[in-house]
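Pasting as-is:
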Amino acid sequence: MSDLGDIVMVPSVRDARKRGMLHARSMIARLSARSVCWADGTEQPCDAVIWCTGFRPNLAHLAPLLPSYEQEGVATNGTRSVDEPRLYLLGYGDWTGPASATLVGAGRTAKATVADIAARLRP
């Protein structure tokens, strides 16, 4: 058992875990123009951040990145944050896609999000 949990243990996740491709990290402190940044100064380049969670939304820790943040949600266009277009939020109910907080809806929403990210990353 690892610190990453076993909630989503589909074969591709199990394989990535076995190959050492999944690594638990602490919460990021901020986003730079091309990286995620931790409080200790460590940075990792990235093109997109996908924020997936469930149960009870609590995004107060993201408020500094999201000027339009409200307790009820984040301004989004689909699953992409309006304030921080590299940030995608999935699984938050109807404000991130029809039934996106359900197993069926999460799959549909995730596929649409991946397609949007891929389209934005194409040269």
